[in-house]
Design a protein that fits this description.
Strand content: over 45%
Structural class: mainly beta
Strand order of the largest sheet: 1-3-4-6-7-10-11-14-15-16-17-19
Helix content: under 10%
Number of strands: 19
């Protein structure tokens, strides 16, 4: 979560970071329009996601570094049974998709103390299970339950190997005040990921859209920008954050099921540094939430547009805020 490197020490060392992320998504949107009736009727879906990322970073010198990230997730999804009378929950817990990245500062920190740009790339491995199953309540009168795939939103992995690209930059106007920016893009070339418990055959882009059990393997994008102010051992920051799951991937097909959309959020943050330890807290607060029309939605709309004019546009649940709290420890 740091915006710039320690340019005063060019020797090799290790960084161990533990980041804890939590959010509760419960507000349903179609496009930018919130479906407030879902809250009134108490038939909204509620996702609670907790993820701990353990990241080990090797700083080789003041320009080169390599990191490995290991995510562990504990997720739940609360929804109504098919009769619409009883709420039940499904769960997933375990290792997510690990990644390995290498990064390089373009300018020599000793000669460019005020600002720098870091570029990075790596691989996202399909280590997270995309075949998590749980028991769904099907008949509240008898308590009958059926073992099925949990929703895509709480699966532990997306089922595909991805390519990571990163750009991080900062510029300090004074020793205490400056700007920062981060860009992250996960390129997922694989089209779909069919869990082993599903017998559905792959379809082509010219046929009907997949069901919700045949998962798309989507790209992901994150952009952050803001300002930071140092006050003694504290660093205060305020920025804008843009998270997106795109409708279309840069490479590969867009078949399968996905809920595309984006969130624009205000992101306040605090860092506290003491010796070789840094504590931090970031809390993006949603300003704009938009569940965009997916490719499957567009195909369904095109199939009936000439006769009914009905537009298909699925919804998605969004959170009001996300909590990120963690600790970074430096080892020589």
């Amino acid at each position: 979560m740091n915006e710039h490197p320690d340019s005063t020490n060019s020797s090799a060392y290790w960084l161990v970071n533990s980041n804890n992320r939590y959010y509760k998504s419960f507000r349903h949107f179609i496009g930018k329009q919130e479906q407030t009736q879902r809250l009134v009727l108490h038939n909204n879906v509620i996702n609670k996601v907790y993820q701990q990322d353990i990241t080990l970073t090797r700083i080789f010198n003041d320009r080169w570094s390599m990191s490995m990230d290991l995510p562990i997730s504990d997720n739940s999804r609360s929804q109504l049974d098919p009769t619409g009378t009883t709420r039940f929950s499904t769960h997933s817990f375990g290792l997510g998709d690990m990644n390995l990245t290498a990064a390089y500062w373009l300018f020599n920190p000793a000669k460019s103390p005020k600002g720098n740009i870091q570029v990075g790339t790596g691989i996202k491995f399909a280590t997270g299970n995309n075949n998590v199953m749980d028991y769904f309540l099907t008949n509240p009168a008898t308590g009958a339950r059926t073992l099925k795939l949990v929703d895509q939103s709480i699966q532990l992995g997306d089922g595909g190997t991805g390519i990571i690209t990163e750009i991080n930059a900062y510029y300090n106007f004074t020793p205490k005040f400056g700007f920062y920016g981060n860009f992250y893009y996960l390129l997922n070339p694989q089209d779909v990921s069919i869990p082993k418990s599903i017998a559905t055959q792959p379809a082509t882009s010219n046929t009907a859209p997949y069901t919700a059990d045949v998962f798309s393997v989507p790209d992901q994008m994150l952009v952050r920008a803001g300002a930071s102010l140092a006050v003694k051992k504290m660093d205060f920051s305020l920025g804008v954050r843009y998270d997106e799951l795109p409708v279309y991937d840069l490479v590969g097909g867009v078949d399968g099921y996905r809920r595309p959309g984006y969130i624009i959020a205000a992101e306040p943050g605090i860092n506290y540094r003491i010796n070789n330890v840094a504590l931090y807290f970031y809390c993006p607060i949603a300003i704009i939430r938009d569940r965009t029309q997916s490719v499957a939605d567009r195909r369904a709309t095109a199939a009936v547009a000439s006769t009914t004019g009905v537009v298909t546009h699925g919804d998605a649940a969004f959170a009001d805020y996300v909590i990120n709290v963690g600790i970074t420890v430096k080892f020589q």
